[in-house]
Amino acid sequence: MTSRRPQRRPVVDLYERIAEAIRQGTYPPGSTLPSEPDLATELGVSRPALREALILLQEDGVITVRRGVGRTVSERPARRGFERLQPFEGLLGADSTTVRPLVRDIEQPTDLVMQHLPVPASCEIRFWESVVDVDGVPSCLVEEWSVHDEALAAVDPALPDVLAAAEARPSTMLHVIGSIDPHLPLSGASTINATVLGRRRGEVFDRSPDTPVVLVTQVVSMERTPLIAAKYVLPSGAPGLPVRQSR
User: Fold this and answer.
1) Does one domain contain both 127 and 206?
2) Are 141 and 129 in contact (CB under 8 A)?
3) pTM score, whole prediction
4) Where are the beta strands (DSSP E) in the chain?
5) CB 3.0 to 4.6 Å from 123: which of 14, 117, 148, 182, for a disulfide?
6) Where is the chain membrane-spanning (predicted)?
7) Three-state DSSP class for residue 150
């Protein structure tokens, strides 16, 4: 019986052709790819086939997509991700991101928050809502809740005052806490789900309520003591989020 050489799928061959053109400098880092019709003509392929390859290239971080700009070739390899806890503005590229505070408030915890944080229903906790812009484009909505001030002070007496003083700063809560001491023993546990924006969040991004999003829910702890519960909302077209795994 003769063995057959495995055949690569056409979309994989097309992926490799485009990736090789990028490596050879035909489409250099930072450049904008030709429009979809022009690129399909250059490569001699159909637009549906090209679109599938482009989706894979975007998923792998070889290219990025920006509304109003198009597809551009990534300038640097994927950044280290969830294996090193850091604020989302860092994960999305600290050199190209800005944080816009939307809400800085004190509120009573919801049932959702109490599922993640050890807080009594009658206490008051901090709620921060921010938008992370990447190259001026809204790319991530960040919603963060902290434990009450007494619990924060039990971990570090400076935490309540530091957070109170930082309310007007363009930073996420995780960034502020981490900036106290970069060597704090912080750890994070995250879950990832797919959903849609909804009306209120859609207004923040100026997108349709039905826009698909990736929702990351994270609990940040210090030495097993939960400090922050957060939601990160990334609509379709947002920059890729690096996640590394090893064994």
Assistant:
1) yes
2) yes
3) 0.67
4) 63-66, 70-73, 97-107, 125-134, 137-146, 186-196, 212-222, 225-235
5) 148
6) none
7) helix
> With pLDDT > 90 as the criterion, what percentage of the chain qualifies?
34
CA angle 81, 86, 91 (to 5 degrees): 50
Question: How far, in Å, CA of 165 to CA of 180, rounded?
Answer: 12
Look at the block and give the residue holding tokens 């009594």. 120
Would 110 be classed as within a structural domain? yes
Phi and psi based region of residue 239 (left: phi greater than 0; alpha: psi -120 to 50; beta: remaining): beta
224, 63 in Cβ contact below 8 A? Answer: no
pLDDT at 193 over 80: yes
Looking at the structure, do residues 113 and 55 belong to the same domain, yes or no?
no
End-to-end CA distance of the chain: 38
Residue numbers of the domain that contains 43: 10-73
